[in-house]
Design a protein that fits this description.
single chain, alpha/beta, Arc Repressor Mutant, subunit A, 11 helices, globular
Amino acid sequence: MPPISAARNDDVPARILIASDHPILRDGLKRLLETEPGLQVVGDAGDAASTLQRVRQLRPDLLLLDMAMPVPGLDVLRALAATSIVPRTIVLTGSIGPKHLVTALKLGVRGIVLKESTTSSLCESIRRVLADHCALGPEQVDDLVCAMVGSPAEGLVRRNRFHLTPRQLQIVAAVAFGESNREVAEHFSISEETVKRHLSNIFDKLGVFSRLELAIFALNHGLVEDGDAMG
């Protein structure tokens, strides 16, 4: 996985860069975020080249990236991943499928916000990502579960390889990308104690000790699938 910028000082406003080829969207986001305490928009970019240049120059704490720019957003992410400066990134998109979602996460994205989302959802996602958490909506978590489990044949191969049950694979997806134990329990209609037991078994089987290590393991050891570039 590409590196994520170091933890920031909470007493200093988070510095945000907005990248979109739509001036109205850039201006609207800037006006919105400037009203939020603790957030500061330090710049904007209208294309892929200027996005890369501004990231190098400004070193923002967070990049808001519109995936629908003329140069596909995933190509921008690949270019960023090849540098030593990789800000926390939230992508703005009209829709995203499971394969594209997995690819974006592998390239360092930590938040997915649909353009139809509310202002409060966007701000909540920004604060979660700035706190080094993931910000995926319920629909994206469901898609990620589907991508991880795959077809019955693929799921069998993965279970044989890592000795994970189908339920454990589902919990890996949900927990690694943002759901709390309570949310996982509600999502799969099981108790929190059952979730904790599953997590203990998963950690033992995979040799990991934290949720972050679990996410990295899942992405780097074939529990999720690569996707094609998104337009």
